Amino acid sequence: MVMPYYRLDSEKAKTLLPGVTIRPVWGERLMVLYLVLEPGAVVPDHTHPHEQMGYLLEGSWEMIIGGERKSLARGDGYLIPSNVNHSVVAGPEGAIALDIFSPPREEYKGEVPVLIPQRAT
Fold it and tell me: Do residues 53 and 100 make contact, with C-beta atoms less than 8 angstroms apart?
């Protein structure tokens, strides 16, 4: 799928979790997701080896990164280092964000993405 130009709204939406959809595009070392969370949608606490950075385009959510809780709204950004636990709960109007991963998440490239793994206990 390496290509010089793309339209995120033309990519097929994939359901990641109930109320959570993604539209991934990627290159050799970078992946961008158009992430949509319906009102109240939950991305449970999890971790992965990828560095993740993002920016809220619309709406709001409450995010926990490494145990630090913060309310984020349109225009706010975040950085999640590799292997740090994090979770999200969408606000009452839902949320739309751009999520960026390095390296690309191989499990999101398939037709049906693998669900986000739960935090190891």
Answer: yes
Full-model pTM: 0.87
* pLDDT tens track for 24-75: 998 889 999 999 999 999 999 999 999 999 999 999 999 999 999 999 999 9
Question: Is the bond preceding 103 in cis, omega lying within 30 degrees of 0?
Answer: yes
The token pair at 37 is 């969370």
Which residue is associated with the tokens 């960026």? 100
Structural domains of the chain, with CATH: 21-103 (2.60.120.10)
Determine the Cα angle at 9 with ends 5 and 102, to 5°: 60
Distances (CA, A) of 79 to 55, 83, 93: 9, 12, 23
